[in-house]
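Hi Prof. W.,

I finally got the HD domain-containing protein prediction working! I wasn't sure whether to trim anything, so I left the full sequence exactly as given:
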Amino acid sequence: MTSTAAADRRLLAGLARQHRAALGVYLAVSLVVIGAGELAALRFGFPERFGLAPVLLRLALYIGGSTLLWSLLLGWSRELVARLLGERRRHYEAILTAFNQALGLKDAYSAGHGRRVARYVVILAEALQRPAEEVETIRQAALLHDLGKLGIPDGILTKPGELEGPEWAAVLRHPDQGADILAASPQLRHLAPIVRAHHERLDGSGYPLGLVAGAIPLPARIIAVADVFDALTSDRAYRMAITPAEAAVVIRAAAGSHFDAEVVAVATRADILEQFARSRS
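And this is what came out:
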């Protein structure tokens, strides 16, 4: 399920096509059956006895009325399906929010960070002219990209100083841990490969798999840039935030080695930085 809303729209569009086809078949069959009946009426001289107008009126009323009734019934059924799908989408979004809030209970920065990165990636993906379905998938993955930090001890997650070897090893595991959590859910497993790859780097220096260039999914490459931008422009326990312009310089310096050059070119445009700032407030 790459995007709940998009899949639901396709389902409703498919139902509408099927209903139109059903109405067409019903109308055709009705015309054949009623036409046969009217031919029989003509054969037995009904028009000569009662006139042609009552025959034609009965035909029009029957076909028009029954077709309208079927159209209303099918329309009501589509509305019911749409309501059920809307309820399913709300439940799905609630799951995403609950995961993010759970992370916020462990680390307040991580919850706010996920929401900000989710907003940034929507701006980036739309500027990159990605399909709406893909934009929504990237947003969902961005919201939960640090879910694996639930498995990192609090003392490591909020440590103000430099991490030591075993502590850093625990941090390196969080993309895998987050992806494993998502993969266990049928509704969320499509997000797992993106979450697993959000710390990969084009030159293979990232983690956990050391993927190179095109082997890294584009959604993960978009999240990687937004993730670093938000980290650089946010106060952390071990350093103060830098300005968006300064963050853009840092990110540009890593374009083509760590980050996708096309994504960086969009992310560091003045108009995109302004949109980031507005979305953050």
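Residues 1-106 form one domain. Does that look reasonable to you?

Thanks,
D.
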